[in-house]
């Protein structure tokens, strides 16, 4: 926690709104005036096309920013077809457009980023060599990753003026790799929300529907990358904070296991709570971005800089699925319903599509039988609440009110629930820990596959619904938290979009609990058309490489099915 | 904790001595009468030669048990030159000799082990193939590693009758690998002593001098393996429990980092204390045994059975020192003195010998500058004592007294100290955790080496002295605990033996503290002649493979120097 910066706490207490407004004004002033665009009419809720149509970006800048495959961008940078200054400028302009539409940024530092890009261009011109595997690539960072000389505010009024005197280890490695950190992105106050709003920088909006949340807590990254305002971003995840915005914004992400990517030096909430640790991971419009980031950081031997990172570099043989039939037939299990909350119709359709796509290319798909899911979810929530909110209150005290709801209109909106979760839970007796018995359960699927192995991965929703109106994402982590608690490596991949033509409401089922009923009633396909629908691919602990490899297989199968559909 | 097995606790309370004596009697009855030897006279303190001279072992059995290189034994088993029944019988007989001399065993199960050996022999005869990389090899296990159908008493009267209904994961994997678990070995009550004595099985003695302790807590393994009663044993280490007995008994061992070898299902002390975790590791008379065990377990993918094990198999490239100049010139740093307690003269001589040996074959040796050593030691001790001894008391309550001293004669012997450790410690302010700043400190040695790298490993004492009379090993972990607290992988290797001709007492120095003065005064080279002297080689966290690879280099350098000496 940064030190108190002002002595007169009482004065500040009354001034917090002004203090936040001053800081927000500084941010606005950092936008180059020539990058200010004319905003679309308020009635236009989907702003995904604005960058293409607003006239700020040149043809080349549109080409650069709409190059989804990160490897292609890196190749062009390496061959000096595009300079880093060109690429960084293009993404910066688009990020500033995204900022004006969705309010996704915190720190803006155009000169510093372009100075870095220029140095990299000069190095390449002079030596003929790239600095590292991410040479010249602009990378956006969630507002936890400290950079020397910049503030890290992380959604707290108290932290205004919290200038870092060194880079966190991730940023140090990104520099070694030749990257260009170029913006930092918005988070919710406390980090522990599935939406993105705080008193300093305000609320981040979903570019598919500005009335909707991009999710959280890495929601600034979600909105920014969805708008192609960054080719690659870094967020964090303790209960779904990478996967929720990736699902709500149509992105790829990877939630790695605890000890693989270096968190040291980054700011965080709930420091000292180590039962379920926050992890950092990449977010991108392409799976290549996810792979390239993960491989670059692991190849840089992060354990030399962060003693909590395990000594294991990128395992190419695991990426090539050495433990999963070496690229032969795989068997996936689909978690249609975790027995706690039933997914909305678009999620169900996404799972049906994925099953068909995988079977069409020769893989096997069976049903996943949930195991201790509710118990694990509840235990995780208990761990997150173990300090009784002390950390949050301590950061807010004397500076600003603690945010109690993400609803834009009221402190207790119509969908707020005050009944407790799942009144009737009766614990079953288990002789093994959840980690052990869940692994046993997974291994036992061997008897149901034709591969001679347990199922290679689980495919599941990340959230039971797609993006929702601000304030309504209150029960988001039933499907994500399993992986945090058991430390399973997992990805999120986009599958489709909500389509009112086919996503009819399901008939009511016998509700598992109050929340299940609430979520069932939330669904109205007319509210959600066009929202992205994504799914998780869940692998074993520390199986990052194989999770990426298997997600590639799933994504290719989905692409192939879509092509067949287009042709027919 | 196993359940109470008897309802009448009060009755048991008065009967604990009888209860323990009954269990000890059962153990004695399990020794085949034809393996009972005539004991040497009481005045003979060094019993290392008894197995060779007592007449129980045939020529072949002596050849088998004195084959120190585990690879050679495995090769002969694979080629059926020796059957597993022959090898197991030979080591079992020698283990029973060791038991009669040093009281090193707990569980004895001759028929079961020979039955297993017979099955393996039949499998090999029938299929021509070995079952796994440890085919036919007898392996001894510290009395924590549960085996189905056997008791795990772990030094507690309460745990008598605690039969396991399944194998722990380590044993499961050892069976997969073709090993023959054949005895279990003694531990101290509570496991948290550097000596080995409990009320059920009594005290384990050091075969180099029966009046001395073999160390602890893996002291049963130490005495057994020193007598060649087992080719390979498995112990555990939370503060030095592998390295202390290895040092006091002249063995090799490896203390791996926390998450590499599977502890799941084994019994342990202080369950729930996860700040500094106990780890398991191999003990052997040869480094080949250490390597073969570690590789076999890692190659078996232990993470599939124990979710707390990291997903990283044996890394052959790290063993080949890919991150340490690939087998070229290395730079070691010697920790001559950690600034807390000064090592005894034989330890100093061992370090001088090692430095000379390494320099003679072209490696570099510089001085290690201790960093936060006392602070780390004290914090570790605080963690170990964090439950105020509740765990120990709970296990003893109603069954037996908690052991307060390892002294054989009295509850407060002449060397007991009641003054606190290091009265004058003043903490220095650090902005980084001990893990981070110790890693920084290590990395900064790059400026003092000629290799372009930080020092490749640290060479240090494990204990400031060699084996001592029973009850006197009260301050043993000043040098070992550093590695537990920082989770550095490290080995222990034997260097020499105490030699009164050259190991003159050092002149008194300005004592760092009370313990340092006490340890200085403990030294009397006439007391210790012939005791083994070993050192630690300390590598980075999770650097097991490189630690083994570098220890091989050190051991070969020492061998080469000894050969030169013998020739000259």
What does this structure look like?
Two copies of one chain form a homodimer. By secondary structure, chain A is an alpha/beta fold. Chain A folds into two domains: 12-267 and 277-308, Amidase signature (AS) domain (Amidase signature (AS) enzymes, Alpha-Beta Complex), CATH 3.90.1300; 315-401 and 432-568, Alpha-Beta Complex (Amidase signature (AS) enzymes). Chain A is 36% helix and 12% strand. Chain A contains 18 helices and 13 strands. Chain A has helices at residues 9-29, 50-53, 59-65, 70-78, 84-102, 110-127, 169-176, 219-226, 243-249, 287-299, 316-319, 345-360, 373-384, 390-396, 434-443, 481-486, 514-522, 544-567; strands spanning 105-108, 138-142, 180-185, 197-198, 202-203, 233-237, 252-255, 279-284, 331-334, 364-367, 457-461, 488-497, 532-541. Chain A has an eleven-stranded mixed beta sheet with strand order 1-3-2-6-8-7-12-13-11-9-10, with helices on both faces. A two-stranded antiparallel ribbon of chain A has the order 4-5. The model of chain A is unreliable at 1-10 and 411-426 (pLDDT under 50). Chain A binds chain B through residues 259, 264, 301, 303-308, 310-312, 323, 433, 435-436, 438-439, 443, 486-487, 540-543, and chain B through 259, 264, 301, 303-308, 310-312, 318, 323, 433, 435-436, 438-439, 443, 486-487, 540-543.
């Amino acid at each position: 926690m940064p030190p108190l910066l002002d002595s007169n706490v009482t004065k500040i207490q009354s001034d917090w709104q002004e203090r936040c407004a001053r800081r927000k004004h500084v941010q606005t002033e950092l936008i180059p005036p020539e990058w200010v665009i004319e905003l679309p009419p308020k009635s236009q809720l989907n702003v995904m096309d604005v960058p293409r149509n607003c006239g700020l970006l040149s043809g080349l800048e549109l080409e650069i920013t709409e190059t989804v495959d990160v490897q292609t961008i890196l190749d062009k940078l390496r061959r000096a077809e595009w300079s880093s200054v060109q690429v960084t400028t293009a993404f910066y302009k688009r990020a500033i457009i995204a900022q004006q539409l969705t309010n996704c940024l915190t720190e803006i530092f155009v000169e510093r980023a372009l100075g870095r890009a220029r140095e990299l261009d000069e190095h390449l011109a002079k030596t003929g060599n790239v600095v590292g595997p991410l040479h010249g690539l602009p990378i956006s960072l969630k507002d936890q990753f400290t950079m020397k000389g910049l503030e890290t505010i992380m959604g707290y009024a108290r932290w205004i003026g919290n200038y870092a005197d060194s880079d966190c280890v991730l940023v140090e490695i990104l520099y070694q790799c030749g990257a260009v950190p170029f913006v930092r992105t918005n988070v919710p106050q406390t980090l522990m929300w599935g939406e993105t709003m705080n008193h300093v920088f305000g609320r981040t909006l979903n570019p598919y529907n500005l009335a909707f949340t991009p999710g959280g807590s890495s929601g600034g990254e979600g909105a920014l990358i969805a708008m192609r305002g960054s080719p690659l971003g870094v967020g964090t995840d303790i209960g779904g904070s990478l996967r929720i915005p990736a699902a709500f914004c149509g992105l790829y992400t990877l939630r790695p296991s605890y000890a693989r990517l270096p968190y040291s030096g980054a700011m965080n909430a709930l420091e000292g709570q180590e039962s379920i640790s926050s992890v950092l991971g990449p977010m991108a419009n392409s799976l290549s971005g996810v792979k390239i980031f993960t491989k670059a950081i692991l190849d840089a031997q992060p354990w030399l800089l962060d003693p909590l990172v395990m000594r294991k570099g990128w395992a190419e043989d695991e990426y090539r699925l050495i433990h999963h039939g070496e690229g032969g037939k795989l068997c996936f299990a689909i978690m249609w319903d975790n027995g706690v909350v039933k997914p909305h119709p678009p999620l169900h359709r996404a799972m049906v599509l994925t099953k068909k796509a995988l079977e069409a290319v020769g893989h096997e798909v069976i049903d996943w039988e949930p195991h201790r899911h509710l118990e694990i979810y509840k235990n995780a929530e208990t761990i997150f609440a173990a300090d009784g909110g002390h950390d949050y209150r301590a950061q807010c005290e004397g500076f600003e009110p603690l945010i109690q709801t993400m609803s834009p209109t009221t402190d207790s909106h119509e969908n707020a629930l005050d009944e407790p979760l799942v009144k009737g839970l009766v614990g079953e007796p288990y002789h093994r820990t959840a980690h052990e018995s869940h692994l046993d359960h997974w291994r036992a699927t061997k008897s149901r596959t034709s591969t001679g192995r347990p199922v290679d991965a689980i495919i599941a929703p990340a959230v039971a619904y797609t993006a929702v109106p601000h304030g309504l994402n209150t029960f988001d982590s039933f499907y994500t938290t399993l992986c945090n608690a058991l430390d399973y490596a997992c990805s999120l991949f986009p599958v489709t979009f909500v389509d009112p033509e086919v996503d009819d409401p399901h008939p009511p089922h016998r509700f598992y609990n109050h929340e299940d009923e609430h979520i069932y009633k939330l669904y109205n396909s007319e509210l959600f058309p066009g929202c992205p629908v994504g799914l998780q691919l869940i692998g074993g602990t520390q199986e990052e490489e194989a999770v990426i490899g298997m997600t590639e297989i799933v994504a290719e199968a989905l692409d192939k099915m879509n092509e067949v559909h287009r042709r027919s």
